[in-house]
Amino acid sequence: MTNLTFSFRRKTCIFIVMKTTNVQPRYKDSPHFKDFWTKGNGKLLIDFSGAEVSLRDFEKFSPYFYHVDETGDQVVKDIYFTKNFREASKEIEEYIRKGISENKNIPESARQMFSQTETVPEWLDYGLLKSGAELCMRANLDSLISLRDYCLMGGYDFAYLNKPLIITEALKKGAVKRLSETLDFWVNVTRYNALELHHKGYEFAIKTRLIHSYARLFIRKHYQNWDTENWGEPINSWDMMATYIGFSLVFLHSLHKLGNTFSLEEEKGLFHLWKYVGYLLGIPEKLLPDNKKQAAEFFYMWTSIQPPADKDSVLLAHSLLNESLENPILKYKFQRKNLRYLHISCTWFLLDDEVCKRLQIPEVSNRNAFPVTKKMINKIYNKIVSRDLRIRKGNKDQMKVLTDYLSITDNSVFH
């Protein structure tokens, strides 16, 4: 059986087909779920957001565990599977940068996808996008610490979420490359005006959408043991929602933990920015939260279907930890070992102890020294340095880190 949903947006008609399934909140009574939401970071997220968590709307969201971006998948089939890579990439880039109005021979799937992405939703507020981008820049290196040591590392504790990474051999690619790609995407969608049509952030969103489709088609074709019933569809819409809540709610909570303050306008802006990125990525709007309360309530339902870290999670976590040792940006071994120690310290500070133990994060001495000192410095720095100066410096420092990573990796968007 299927549930057919019609979504009308101006002149664009989008058909969303979802399977009716029997997926249940199977881990709602498990210790890892209860501990997270009653005494771990989940409890802190509830306090931070004012969320009223429950499973009463579970059945409204659970079908998205089996829903994917079929339009993006068809674009990959029609363009990347019918041409050589260089020709296909050139064609997509032309649509991204020039639009589709002048292209008469465009495949129908591409016309449908770009009609959606070129249709600016009525709810979009460019002022809020600007505020969200400014918060990302203003938090400077705390933004990058949050992405790495809370958002990415914390995500590895959700075993089913990580299966596409394992199957597409992310470990073989290496953490340096994987981190570089994540940083490249994040930086380019969080700058001023980045998400305007045909601009750099818009381009990154479209290409990332097609990377997801390409990976999903690869998994469907080459991995016969994919457990759809338990894992959902590869890179499904519900998992995508959780990932982008990581970039908004979890990211914001991490900045808060590190002693950063932010205005209500900046907070609203951050959620608005990632809502629009999600829209460009083809995530159904119903799954894109407007604020931290809604995000925490959505996240609660999703976590009820996720088991705790497994052996693949531990491999991913340790690959990320050891990235500091493998990365040639720092010249000397003692510098790399020290950087690894600082990231381990931040991981213990930002994540639950139980999560760190499941991911087998090493114990280190004086692990709170660096993050607690950083928190104290942040509170002083935020009071004595002007907001505009912090934004400019944050942008400069983040761009320097990105440039360093791109200099050591072959970071083409498709690979």
Automatic annotation (TrEMBL):
Signal peptide: none annotated. One of its GO terms (molecular function) is oxidoreductase activity. Residues 174-369 form the ER-bound oxygenase mpaB/mpaB'/Rubber oxygenase catalytic domain. InterPro entries: Lcp-like (IPR037473), MPAB/Lcp_cat_dom (IPR018713). It holds the Pfam family MPAB_Lcp_cat. This is DUF2236 domain-containing protein. It comes from Chryseobacterium cheonjiense.
